What does this fold into?
Amino acid sequence: MSDMSSNIFLSLVQFSGDALKRMDANLGIHGISFTEYQVLHHLSLSPTSTMPRIELARCVGLTASGVTRLLAPMEKMGMVVKESHPRDARMSLVKLSEAGERIYSESSTTVAHVASGFLDSLSKVQREALARLF
It folds into this structure.
């Protein structure tokens, strides 16, 4: 890896860490972390608001056991509901509850505000270039 590549990578990791800390701090007013927000987000994108637990783990970058530990308090708080798969008893499904939909909707405004704050220092051309990368 060249020095420039290393510097870019390290800067991205630093930016990511700073963004996650700020996002977690701001989402605290909704009683959730950014990882929990990501779970709600991915479930909300599903046409049935339901996903297999293993697929949800992949989407948020956790192991199967990691997402299980994350989901347990979310289920107790009523944000998600565990369901059985209709055709495969080995597969566990996670469904977004009405309370989860409400928390997701309210917290999405916070996420948009914090994200804008991070990107405000970039010009429109820079933001467009960044969007093309991802």
